[in-house]
Amino acid sequence: MPGGSERARKPYLYVVRGQWPYAVMEPDIAAQVAQAVGRSLLEAMTRQELSANTLAKKSRVNRQVIAHVLAGKAWPDLMTVARLENALGVMLWPRHVDWPADGEGRSVEPPAENPG
Fold first, then answer.
1. 60-99, pLDDT tens digit by residue?
2. What is the 3-state secondary structure (H, E, C) of 38-95?
3. Rounded to the nearest 10 degrees, what angle do helices 63-71 and 29-48 cross at?
4. Disulfide: which of 31, 51, 67, 77 matches 14 by Cβ 3.0-4.6 Å?
5. Model confidence at 16, in pLDDT bands (50, 70, 90)?
6. Which DSSP category does 103 fall into?
7. How far apart are CA 113 and CA 105, in angstroms?
8. Is 107 helix (H, G, I), strand (E, B) or coil?
9. Percentage of the chain with pLDDT > 90?
């Protein structure tokens, strides 16, 4: 399991240009997946008109953890994602294995449109 300095660098620090969670990211699959999870979480909460407090109660995930995932300040773990997906009734984890490869064969998240 990666740790140390890799885990210490927060996902939002991989932004090359644009604004999290709709930014262009460095070609780091973990950071891109974290951004995709944060974006999916934000969009699901917006569609369902849920606050972080309400979602925290519904999912049993700490409100601060939700805020950090939304802001790219935390690496979302499996327990967090599973509980949030269950509470929201939507998948948050992207199908990153289907993302196109860059010139070096690395999967790269396709650009996402910022709805607002």
1. 999 999 999 999 999 999 999 999 999 999 999 998 887 7
2. HHHHHHHHHHHCCCHHHHHHHHCCCHHHHHHHHHCCCCCCHHHHHHHHHHHCCCCCCC
3. 120
4. 31
5. very high
6. T
7. 24
8. strand
9. 73
Whether 69 contacts 80, CB under 8 Å: yes
Contact indicator for 45, 63 with CB cutoff of 8 Å: no
Cα–Cα distance measured from residue 94 to residue 16, given in angstroms and rounded to the nearest whole number: 20
CA 28 to chain centre: 13
How many angstroms separate the CA atoms of 40 and 88, rounded?
11
The three-state secondary structure class of 98 is helix
